[in-house]
Write a structure and sequence with these properties.
- The protein is mainly alpha-helical.
- It has helices spanning 13-19, 112-125, 129-141, 147-159, 167-178, 184-202, 221-233, 237-249, 254-266, 275-290, 295-298, 303-308, 324-333, 335-342, 353-357, 362-374, 379-395, 405-423, 431-444, 464-474, 481-493, 498-510, 516-529, 534-550, 557-569, and strands at residues 8-12, 21-26, 29-36, 39-44, 58-60, 63-65, 72-74, 93-96, 99-102.
- It starts with 7 loop residues before the first strand and ends in a 7-residue tail after the last helix.
Length: 576
Amino acid sequence: MSSTDRFVPAVERDELSESGRKLVSLDGRAIALFDHEGSVRAVDNACPHMGFPLIEGTVDDGVLTCHWHHARFELECGDTFDPWADDVLTYPVEIRDGTVYVNPTPEPDEPPEVHWATRLEDGLEQNLRLVVAKSVIGLVDADVDATTPLETGVEFGCRYRRDGWGSGLTILTAMANVLPDLEPDDQKRALYQGLVQVGGDVSGEPPQFEQQQLGATDTDFDRLLSWFRENVEVRDPSGAERVLRTAIDAGYDDADLARMLATAATDHRYIQTGHVLDFVNKAFESLDHIGWDHADTVLPSLVRGLTTAERSEETSSWRRPVDLAGLLDDTFDELDTHAEAGAGKSWSRPDGMVETLLSDDPNEIVAALVEAIRAGATPEELAETVALAAGTRVAQFSTANEFNDWNTVHHTFTYANAVHQLTQRTDATELYRGVFDTAVNVYLDRFLNTPPAPLPETNADANPDVELDTLSETMDAEGRVNDAGRAAAHFLDSGGDPERLRQELGGALLREDAGFHTYQALEAGFAQAAHRPPEEARTLYVAVARYLAAHAPTRREREQTFTIAARLRRGEKIHE
């Protein structure tokens, strides 16, 4: 059909002149017609901000103002003066023999995937939650792969935040990791929640100015590693960034770069309560999603955090009453010797290993890890074992403790997960140090399991549907921590599908105004439960359920924003 044939009669010109405005329905579209300054203009009646009828707005000096939130639009082209509102759709108009004709199906100025990609950038730049929500929904509905908004968010967060990689980018990557575990609508929520966190992190912050790589791109890796560690050691972010960019430019692969960053992050004990190494891991995981051609943007964002982090050996808890840092220093002096002794051997976790890690004797814990290395345990095998112990601390957290103590066991667990994930990327011996750091923190956290909350007794006769309903209900009332853990456990005991449990837990998280740690807890729990024996996975799902319930319910303001965006997308009238 030609553009001329698309025009249909709307209203008599004299009638419109007399009233000044007219609402018509053409081809199923509500269109507001205005006679202003001798010309006829046609716009979509729904305000693009929140759907209020623009026919009830005010027109003055060529500007249409919506009366609900006062969004303003240039009447001729529909462009908004207020970026939070989006442009309003305009329709071509012709006057024929005294009748106003309108084309209700004009060709769009740009494809929806282009429009929403641009709007997502606007939403991030100005930290506009509703714009981010609309953009995510629009992109997914346009069959755009999740990688596209993820790439936009990662690039934005790395380029425009001087302090570099932070909680927002970690949340976004964590949500990208769990997308396969979620229902389709919750996949939109996951991207929205992550992107909103990135926008919030960057808002008001100075941008990142890049350092240039060194000219010595033919320098061998071991020397670059030495230079990088030295610059981190003396807290020189500019020098460290130049070395890292040199390694990237030289073409070293993800295993080498992971070794460089993880080594510097474990040269000191459990830096910044584990967040720095977790950020390192999440940065690498983000590149797995968006592509390694973004490495020169993403990885340098980690440097400032590495060089400014608090080092746990500088804290009293690692020095008194037991000099835990000194104990590890002595162990690490012999680490290469222990690893050489275990070379070529095959290790299986002995019975009681996890119980030893949960015991109250740090010397026995360190000795058990050394024995395992000498018996052939790889960094990955030991990291997986210690992560289970850390997850058990969360699953058995005693609610007699102060609420903020949830963070203590949480930090250890997410650090353990980061170490484990990095050991699957590089087999660097240096990552043994991360394993020991985790084990020492599991030891330090022992008082938070005093007394330990018992793991739920097995109940194979439970009704999985009832247990899932119960789990959902625990998120709507404070204090139902143990009920949540019990419901998750009994769901699995009675044959419930773990995939369905992950969907329920993920959906519950995404409807809350969750904090940074809660996103981390869910993603780390899912990652650690995957591919484990059922009994171990059960413990980890109990940990996730209890942690989520402890931090719910919230005001759910971000969910309200997402719901508004989804309703607008469906054409619902929010104002009624």
